[in-house]
Amino acid sequence: MSPGIDNKSEFLGGRLQAAREQAFVGRGEELAVFTTALYGGRCSVLYVHGPGGIGKSALLRRFARRAAAAGRSVARVDGRTLEPSPEAFEAEAEPILRNEQAVLLVDTFERIQGLEGWLRERFLPRLRVGALMVIASRFPPDMQWQADLGWSGALEVMSLRDLPPGDAKELMDSCGVADELREPLLAFAGGHPLALLLGAAVAVKDGGASRRWTPNQDVVATLLDQLVGEVPSAAHRHALEICAHAYMTTEELLRAALPEDPGTLFGWLRRLPFVESSSLGLYPHDVVREVLEADLRWRDPQGYAAMHDRIHAHLTEKVRTAAGPSVLSAVAALFYLHRDNEAMVDPHSWYDEGEVQEDVMRAEDVGTLRRLANTAEGELSAANADFWMRRQPEAFRIYRRTETGEPVAFYAWLRLPEPDEAELAADPIVAAAWAHARASAPLRDGEYLAVGRSWILPSYRGNSPVMDLLQWRVIGNCLRSERMAWSYLAIRRPSPGRVHCFRYHDMHDLPGGPQLQDETYTLFVHDWRAVPPRTWLERLNPSWAPDPHERNGVMAGRLVVLSQEEFAEAIRKALRHLSRMNVLAESPLARSRLVAEHAEQDPAKALRELVEQAIEALREDPRSVKFHRAIAATYLHGVPTQELAAQRLGLPFTTYRRHLVSGIERVCADLWHRELYGTGAAHSPAR
Questions:
Q1: How far is the C-alpha of 594 from the C-alpha of 678, rounded, in Å?
Q2: CA distances (Å), 445 to each of 228, 281, 451, 539, in order?
Q3: In which domain of life is the source organism classified (predicted)?
Q4: For residue 32, how many other CB atoms are within 10 A of its CB?
Q5: Which pLDDT tens digit goes with each residue over 242-285?
Q6: HEC string of 222-237?
Q7: % helix / strand / coil in the chain, to the nearest 5?
Q8: Around Cβ 547, how many Cβ atoms within 10 Å?
Q9: Which of 241, 284, 465, 481 is most buried, most CB within 10 Å of its CB?
């Protein structure tokens, strides 16, 4: 890096620091506690908690300055961008373990609050005497700190609240707020530092503002304009809106959602004063994010929906291609887009993130898990778990407490391609799933059904980190599975709220569920051939979107699941009526996966084009050219009878018929392959 660039960075950093210093007021008590700890007080851990935007990050920046001025080394950890695991935390916080003069500042700890027990029991006792750690979180520390007398002098807890009136007025003075605007601004923001700063940015520049000034939607828009400054273009505004909508914004995401010059737009975003930069991407402050979201929803609902669609498509592909351990975070990022949908399960229980870790099952875990299953659901259920652990060990995931490594739950995603007598006899739940599938819409060649089973200790049922992780794992399995026909989730004693949530997600409970001992299990079932992943995802949040039937045509409805024989008969009928669009529109093929993948077209037109493409493909192989000639003469060239078609081809009728039948079989086989595997799948029917 050249010296000129270095100087520019220093000047910009100095300007940002000066602005932050000007906006910092009050907090004398908190600063006094920190100073005492810094200069040899007994306290080794300061725990600061308070709601979002209350000034925790600003206070930590002031702590950092005081520590640096005292000659102490300072390290920072941000829970927003850190993987919630002990390994990741320790890698970032390593300086404090080897330096008794180090000060470690942990911001946004609520994102990794699940590590709190591990931090207290395993990490902090390894600190050198003299080192100081500051934790800032939205949530107070758990009661275990107070229950342990060893922490009585080593821990200081500070609750950060609104600024008192005097400090709030000082903050308004620093922003240049006129006297007549103080009362309405205080009524709008109270002593909340971020709201005061944002409100002041608007009020100061509102020449017509008076004591009657009140925030409304126009003020919110003005607030955004004043915070950002003059937006260079519509593309820059769109980039800002994308940053507010997605959990983390990368240049790759910008390229997918806003293809015009993403590099420049990303560079502009990262320089905005309310946008933070991290190793995972860019993110705005929570309050700013919500204001930006509310503004776009109000100002341009259709534009909001279009932006959501583009980001959604990008993150859906991320889920599909994510490597093993990254699946859960990819699903969580996707479902963050639906965070305002009240009908869904809470998409992010960030308070407990990191408390429980997912792990694969190993041979030495079998005995422990069987005992866990016995505790959770009884001996017969434990016997089922043991049966499947030995039969499909790769299907299992374990959920362990981060603090101790102790398993508290485990889960199986059983892939079953065909009924097996031993499995049916061993597990009533699997037997019930097969009975339903065979009675409803049997599996076709190459398909399988999946059964999800879980064993969870009682204290982790309901709203818990285990249930969060299980939710992401189930959704990831469903969205990433190829050739899965049915999914069945077996739930023991589901709550009414959970039943409602499953039904909302088109996973319907079957009457008369299977029993283990005296317990009845509810099976929630979904046919992924009738409502494939793409359609399922599009239905998650209908509140912001236009009517789904208008958005995606046939993709919005349930697809028809045809057997191979039914499919071939429908193809034969379509061949006979290729010129009659009304007949093609009524064909069951118009609601098949084959046609649904071309949802942007009229279904009848798409069906005709697909059949014609399959006929044309016969010309690519010299051995099937004769079949192409027979089928084209019969169905594409308007010949009234097969006898006349044979004459025009100069073939004996029996030879013509043999070629025609073979051509139809090839067309049916080609289109059946596309129905099963997608229209992009290569297929070379057996000659």
A1: 7
A2: 57, 44, 19, 28
A3: Bacteria
A4: 10
A5: 999 998 899 999 999 998 899 999 998 887 767 778 777 898 86
A6: HHHHHHHCCCCCHHHH
A7: 55, 15, 30
A8: 9
A9: 465
